[in-house]
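Document type: protein sequence-to-structure record

Subject area: structural biology

Format: plain text, a pair of labelled lines:
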Amino acid sequence: MEPDPHSHPHPDRDSPHRVHGRHESDEERADRRWTDILQEVRVTQTGVQILFGFLLTVVFTPRFATLSATDKSIYVVTVLLGAATTGALIGPVTFHRFVTGRHIKPEMVIWASRLTIVGIVLLLATVTSAILLILRIAMNDDVVPWIVAGLVAWFALCWFVLPAWARHHYGTRK
């Protein structure tokens, strides 16, 4: 079948040089990717801020004094992980603020993306530690490590494995 001579070729589908699926300059791509990162960071920042705020209040409750040394250590680790997570997820915003006007947005987007990934990994560690502490206090049972391990596996599947699979599986489509 001959192509219709009056039809216009689809710029993305028919181009032998199609790489990104859209016609955008490096600056436009950086702007789009930056907007995407901001939306993603807003979601994770909200969760981290709520969790971290809650964690900061625990030490001031009467029950805290009754915790075992192990549970207090887990609490301290959880707070430190929450603080590190907060730093990594706020990092892209401060990075942007410091380099605005320097004409390095594509590079900034790469670094912001890396900080966001680090923040998500730290968030996994923070949530894991918080769940461990809560379940140790609530259940005081040998099954707690298994529950926590199951939840970590679930988070890893949702946050890392499925996106990596989709990237591999669908990323090679033309």
